[in-house]
Specification:
This protein has no helices and 27 strands. The chain is an all-beta fold and 489 residues long. It has a domain at 1-196: Maltoporin, Chain A (Beta Barrel). The strands form 4 sheets. The protein has a 20-stranded antiparallel beta sheet that branches. Strands 4-26-25 form a 3-stranded antiparallel beta sheet, with no helix packed on it. The model has no long low-confidence stretch (mean pLDDT 94).
């Protein structure tokens, strides 16, 4: 349970979360695991602030970082979700295993926000708008698997076949309209906010049926994986405002293949190719069904595990995504971008330097550009809020022995590369480096920890975007201290 205020005036961030689980094993061949969770969020969107006064100069001076640009008493974000999952496994013999997984998920959303829409010529008055979204979603997912292990000569096969099914039902009502303006430097709240009529009231049902087959083959030091999948998806949307119905049926065959060679010294080079197919839920602002998102990824890399306590990974990737969804910051409506291509490298290191000192490091370089779009300004540009460089480093030192045994400290840094706020890549958001720390104590099955994020209280803007022709920024989380107690049975 969390009962919390935030760094922004009038914004609280409360949460209730519980996730019990139980496993039953009537015999050595059968197991049934039940997982469930309940979460209730009661908070308010902290809102973005004009870039003039945060990221950029403003003749009126800097805007206080705790400034709330919404409307107290009107803004709210209430979300309640629940899920229950069953995982059933039964071994028929040493070669054949049956699995049946079922998950039911439900969520209800009540989101109301008064937000800054543009900045007037005086550089202090923001025009605001009202947006609300009320909805509920329920989904049922079934996955039935048959695993068969066998050998052909010296090659060992693990054959996995399955059928999965998902049914999703979504009801959504959204409204959008004008709201009273606000002096962001000397705000006076309480002006009446007119509740606009809904601009969309949809009832959506989506069904997806998939058949898949995978074979993992191990021969001496080689590991090969071949997989194929066929999907059928049906999407039906009832527009209750316009009294119209739209349907879309899609299908696709996708595949995956990988090959790895494991040297005796712990070095394992590999290469892989993956295709993806993801049906999109709902429609755009004009009531048109979205096309499914598709993707293709090539990856080549090396994994190195010199001992049980260390692992190092290097991967080069080339990913193409088509028809992926983005949210329009002006209308909050989802839009479908034509195609984007990402190329880059990922480096990861996890190593126990000594019995007391552990180190985790990672670095990602991503070169992303929009390669096809209905907006000419986006072509051959980097997508907004997408950093080129990401890096992190974390070191943990834990004492071992009779004195202060189990006491440890951690220190790390996170690097967020620069991003662009606009599609034409003219407004750049600077990079930032943030430090974190922790103190922890392990006693038997319990751990007591004190975690500090943004240790030196660095002020920066992790992202920005353009709305109504005005650039806005989102402030980073200030120094946050969290105490935690955990116990493992």
């Amino acid at each position: 349970m969390r009962n919390s205020d935030t760094q922004v005036d009038f914004v609280h961030d409360d949460r209730i979360y519980i996730a019990p689980a139980i496993t039953w094993k009537p015999n050595s061949d059968t197991s049934l695991t039940l997982l469930t969770h309940y979460q209730k969020d009661d908070t308010i969107s902290s809102q973005a602030l004009p870039a003039a006064g945060t990221l950029l100069p403003n003749p009126n001076g800097p805007i206080p970082r705790n400034r709330f640009s919404g409307e107290p008493g009107v803004d709210k974000y209430e979300r309640e979700e629940f899920s229950v999952t069953s995982l059933l496994e039964h071994k028929l013999n040493d070669s054949v295993t049956l699995r049946q997984n079922t998950r039911y998920y439900q969520t209800d959303l009540n989101d109301v926000v008064v937000f800054s829409n543009s900045l007037q010529a005086d550089q202090r008055t923001v025009d605001r708008a009202y947006f609300s979204s009320f909805g509920n979603l329920a989904s049922l997912t079934l996955d039935n698997q048959l695993e068969y292990r066998f050998s052909l000569g010296a090659a060992k096969h693990t054959l996995l076949s399955g059928i999965d099914f998902q049914n999703v039902e979504l009801d959504s009502i959204q409204a959008f309209g004008a709201a009273p303006s606000l002096d962001i430097y000397n705000p006076v709240y309480g002006s009446p906010v007119n509740i606009p009529a809904p601009f969309r009231n949809d009832s959506t049902e989506q069904q997806q049926l998939g058949f898949y087959l995978q074979d993992e083959i191990r021969y001496e030091q080689w590991i090969a994986t071949l997989a194929g999948r066929y999907d059928e998806a049906k999407n039906k949307v009832n527009d209750l405002l316009m009294n119209r119905q739209s349907r879309q049926d899609d299908s696709a065959t996708t595949g995956r293949a990988s090959l790895m060679y494991q040297f005796v010294n712990g070095v394992s080079p590999y290469l892989s190719y993956t295709e993806s197919f993801l049906p999109a839920l709902g429609t755009d602002a004009n009531g048109r069904n979205f096309d499914p998102e598709t993707g293709q990824q090539f990856e080549v890399g090396v994994k190195f595990q010199p001992n049980a306590g260390s692992q190092f990974n290097v991967a080069l990737f080339d990913l193409t995504r088509e028809n992926f969804l983005t949210t329009n910051p002006n209308t909050f409506a989802q839009e479908q971008t034509g195609e984007a291509r990402s190329k880059g490298i990922e480096l990861e290191a996890l190593t126990a330097i000594t019995d007391q000192l552990n180190l985790i490091a990672s670095y990602t370089y991503t070169d992303v550009e929009i390669t096809r779009s209905t907006d000419p300004a986006e072509l051959n540009r980097r997508p907004v809020q997408t950093p080129e460089h990401l890096a992190s480093l974390w070191a943990d030192y834990t004492l071992r022995g009779d004195v202060l045994n189990g006491v440890g400290i951690g220190l790390g840094a996170r690097y967020l590369g620069s991003t662009f706020a606009d599609a034409s890549n003219t407004l750049k958001v600077p990079n930032a480096t943030v430090f974190d720390a922790s103190i922890h104590y392990d006693w038997k099955q319990a751990r007591f920890s004190l975690n500090i994020q943004n240790l030196f209280d660095r002020e920066y803007e992790p992202s920005a975007y353009i709305r109504g022709g005005t650039p806005f920024t989102v402030a980073a989380q200030e120094r946050t201290v969290q105490a935690q107690v955990s116990y493992r049975w």
